[in-house]
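Follow-up to my earlier ticket, as requested here are the two runs.
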Amino acid sequence: MTDTPAPRADSGDSPAGLGFAISAYVLWGFLPLYMKLLSHIPPAEVVAHRVVWSVPIAGVILVFLGRTSDLRTALTTPRTLAMGCVTAALISVNWAIYVWAITSGHALEAALGYYINPLFSVLLGAVLLKERLAPLQWGAIALAAAAVLVLTVQGGKVPYVALSLTVSWGFYAFFKKWLPVGPNQGFMLEVLILLLPALGYWAYLTGTGATHFGGTTQDTLLLLGCGAVTAIPLMLYANGAKRLRLTTIAILQYIAPTMIFLVAVFLFDEPFGTARAIAFPMIWTSVALYLLSVFRTRR
């Protein structure tokens, strides 16, 4: 779903920052409605067009912001380019899983994955960076793990979609912190790295007559729009996060999975079931514990 610049804990909340961030999360919350219209198109083709049409949008924004020199430096620095390849690979995997989840009737699992993701990021910090966690944070992680166990036992299968989204986005956010460029430049770097494979795949589909682009007016417009629905929320979030406190971002980030959850249940009519009726309240409780820990840390 987002770019992940690290906001300063001591910064204040600006109205512009709130506007940017809330707009980004609301757009991500409505994104399943857009992706559902692409259900008849293979996820790989959708991801390819998300990459291709994000490039001109991100490029125009970088030119407007006057940050193209940073991008040129990143493209000519081997270490930065290598790290960009890592984050680009992770975000492309995350996009592919997300598109497949929405278009194949697994939007509830997508919501679950993005509810768990912040807790997974906290766990990564503890394991990989040796960060000390507060008791409330350990409690939140344990409760989320118990919810996954409930889904596995009661549902009869591991929630692979949710866990795949959590892990791919969690590691993307982790490695993104080490990418020595700004969030807007970082996103442009990633889509430029992915551009050649995306164009190659598009050319293959065109050559085999399997492409949906140019087939019908609706399909063509929807695929063209993939760039806007990908790049615009990311750019909005990147600019909002710089103007908000960490505690504010911690709260706002749950707007999107909550909207995805509501869309899945009330618009997509996905079955809720006993396992989810038990697991989701557990997840919401773990989220409450996590947010409480964030507020305590802030104070």
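Run two:
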Amino acid sequence: MHQTFLCGIVRTAMLCLLVAGSLALTSRPTFAQQTVAPAMSVCQARRAIVTEVQRTILSKWRLISTPTGVEFNVGELMFQAEPSWYKKLFPSGTYSVDLKTLGEVTEVIADKGADEGQCSLRVDGRDPLRGKSYVYLEGNARKNLSSASILGFLAWGKTENAQAFADSMNVLRLYARNFDSSSGLPPPCFTGKDEQARIWVEFQKRAAAWRALPSKPPISDEVNKHWLLAEDELKEKHFDAALTEYEAALEIDPLWPVGQFNAAMLNGELKNYDDAVWHMRCYLELTPNASDAQSAHDQMLLWQAKAEQAAH
């Protein structure tokens, strides 16, 4: 199967959610249903972390004030925090967690002496606060200490919130550990604004080389599996799960116009406007002469406006 322009309108419930005159998802031929559970994409993990950080609770034994300013790079998670104790070791400021060296993150309920019902984290089965401290950024100075300890301050009132954070951290750390910058581009949602600008320049170069090919290479079996799963999830109206599959496919092959378009549309419907704009920009960069290019451009402008409204 070749990567081509739009090959039709998807006949799923997702179409009912699209407003009159808007773009429809790009569809594919019908295949046998798949039974493999969808994996969490990097973008989904990133969004979950941002959400769950905001749900952390003030606790006698754990947290700080609610962390803010969450930022990502391929090998790093950063956020602003004000720890409630050990202030000489943990002053207020920006903290960094090294994702490439981070161990497995799990959640634990109600430590001995902790508030009833409180859920906190473990890294490689141990309390992060019992490690060799943390990484603290102060200007350009970086203390030469382990980064996992700051996670020991985070606490939640519900098990599912702590579990969602732990699962998402594990997705990001494994991705960071395995990412090969020489062969791929990190998802934009996994990076800071400066890094996104660099990624876009690199994407434009790769898109130009792809456009120049006399015939486009077929998508891989792995990408095709994610496409099959995405279509299956759409039939069940599982729009978040469908988006996860498209995003996972694009982590493998960002030069896939159909995936970029469908990821854009699903992000837009789910009000992830910044991500929707990014994917539509990628689609237009790959297929600037597509018959729907103007409509796609107009849709992107609408999402940009909505993103700006949401920011104020």
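The only thing I checked on run two: The longest helix spans residues 159-178. Let me know what else you need.
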